[in-house]
Specification:
This protein is of the alpha/beta class. The chain is built from 6 helices and 3 strands; from the N terminus they run H-E-H-E-H-H-E-H-H.
C-alpha cells in the first residue's frame, strides 16, 4: 500500500499526484474529510469525483463527521451541499463511501476499519 498526500483542497496537486504515482491496475482509495474541522473548509467533492473518474473503480471515502447536520439544505452533508447524490459518483465509475465513524463511533471502530481497507486495497 502506497500513501500519498496532496495539498489541502488543491485539486491541481491532487490530479498531479494521481498522475505521477498511480500505476495501471492500482486500486485507488482516497479518504477525505467532507468539512475540515480546523478551518471549516469544504472538500471540493465534484472536482474530486471528476479527477477520480480517470481512474475507473476508484473509491472515494468522505468522512462526514463535521458535515452531517451542518451543511446541505437539510443538513444531509456534502453531497446535498453540492446538489448531487452518490449516484453522480457511481455514474462516473467512482465508488462513494460515506462515513461518520471517526466521531460518532470513536477510535475503536476506526481501528477496526483499517484492516478491512487494507485487505480491500492491497497493492
Amino acid at each position: 500500500m502506497r500513501v500519498k498526500a496532496y495539498r489541502h483542497c488543491d485539486m491541481a496537486d491532487f490530479a498531479k499526484k494521481l498522475k505521477r504515482y498511480a500505476k495501471p491496475g492500482d486500486r485507488i482509495l482516497v479518504v477525505s474529510d467532507a468539512v475540515f474541522s480546523m478551518d471549516g473548509d469544504v472538500a471540493p467533492l465534484p472536482e474530486m469525483i471528476e479527477i477520480l473518474s480517470n481512474y475507473p473503480d476508484s473509491v472515494l471515502v468522505m468522512d462526514e463527521a463535521h458535515a452531517s447536520g451542518s451543511i446541505g439544505a437539510t443538513g444531509r452533508g456534502i453531497y446535498e451541499h453540492f446538489g448531487i447524490t452518490p449516484q453522480y459518483a457511481i455514474d462516473r465509475n467512482v465508488n462513494p463511501v460515506i462515513m461518520t465513524t471517526s466521531r460518532s463511533l470513536g477510535r475503536p471502530w476506526g481501528q477496526r476499519l483499517v484492516p478491512i481497507f487494507r485487505s480491500l486495497f492491497r497493492c
